[in-house]
Amino acid sequence: MQSLVNDLKNLGIRKGDNLLVHASFKSLGKVDGGPETVISSLIESIGENGTLLMPALSYETVTESQAVFKVNETPSCVGALTEYFRKRPGTLRSLHPTHSISAYGKKANFFTKDHEQDSTPVGPNSPLSKLRDEHGKILFIGCGLRPNTSMHGIEEFVTPEYLFNGDVTFAIEDADGKIKQYLHTTHGFKGWEQRYDRIENILDDHELKKGKVLEANCYLMDAQALWAKAFEKLKENPLYFIDNK
After folding, report:
1. How far apart are alpha carbons 90 and 48 in whole angstroms?
2. pLDDT per residue over 96-115, tens digit each?
3. DSSP one-letter code for 81
4. 72-101 mean pLDDT
5. Which of 225, 198, 7 has the alpha carbon at shortest distance from 136?
6. So what's the pLDDT on residue 1?
7. Distance CA 86, CA 55 (A)
8. Which of 17, 140, 192, 239 is the most exposed place for a label (fewest CB within 10 A)?
9. Distance of CA 211 to the CA centre of its chain
10. Per-domain residue ranges of the chain
11. pLDDT over 80 at 39, yes or no
12. For residue 48, which of 5, 7, 20, 16 has the smallest C-alpha distance?
């Protein structure tokens, strides 16, 4: 565990950080203690005043034909580590049918509350939008820069032609078992390949750091710089971050 903590510190993670993590657990190599060791190391790295966030996206199972989201039960579809974190005691999860975020730490409630009030996946109440406002960081562990969910929030400001798919009424069940109906505009991307790795061409070395955590190649990104510079690039060229399939 200490080697994990040391690697995270060397990459630039500090006590008090609000940290969103996209990760491939397998990329780390053999980790004694499995996912718990990774999560515990991340929590130790940011300390008691920090907050750890991970995506708990469910767009594969919560669809127009199966439009029910249960915050306590609906699994994350973006990796084993995110699912472990979602179910870990003390973790909170935002209420959103397809793009929920899990959080643990000092500001977990702040980050996760009110997400259901947004009519899009990454609106102003999304934890990802709040991460930008709280000067947060985004860590990519062994997964490259493509799985960058924050980019959707930036795209929602520019509304490029590929982004939105249509409106769906979802049933959302909260932690107390109460169910409400919400109308959400879903994302599309049909026929397009997301190329969010191109952000590496835009951010400077202070805004995007590279390093190793155990065996994984990692990136640590400044959330505010991402939102600011990616927004300017999308205004200039709305198709910069996608390719035709």
Report:
1. 13
2. 999 999 999 999 999 999 99
3. H
4. 97
5. 225
6. 73
7. 9
8. 239
9. 20
10. 2-244
11. yes
12. 16
The identity of residue 240, as a single letter, is: Y
Q: Structure tokens of 12?
A: 């630039």
Share in percent of the chain as helix, strand, coil (round to 5): 30, 25, 40
Rounded to whole angstroms, how far apart are CA atoms 12 and 122? 26
Tokens at residue 215, please?
Answer: 């065996």
Fill in the DSSP letter of residue 74: P
pLDDT at 190 over 90: no
Count of other CB atoms within 10 angstroms of residue 173? 17
The encoded tokens of residue 137 equal 């960081």
Give CA–CA dist 62/68, Å, rounded.
6
Q: Which helix (H) or strand (E) holds 192?
A: strand 192-194
Residue 11, number of CB atoms within 10 A of its CB: 19
> Which residue type does 102 have?
S
What is the total residue count of the chain? 245
Alpha-carbon distance 20 to 206, whole Å?
18
* Type of residue at 43: I
Give the residue carrying structure tokens 């973006």: 78
Nearest to 239 by CA among 163, 142, 146: 163
Report the phi/psi class of residue 61: left, alpha or beta, with left for phi > 0 and alpha for psi in -120 to 50.
alpha
Question: One-letter amino acid identity for 231?
Answer: F
Q: Say how many Å lie between the first and final Cα of the chain, rounded.
A: 41
pTM of the model: 0.96
Q: Provide, rounded to the nearest whole percent, the portion of the chain with pLDDT above 70.
A: 100
CA distance 229 to 219: 17
CB atoms within 10 A of CB 95: 21
Residue linked to tokens 């510079």: 229
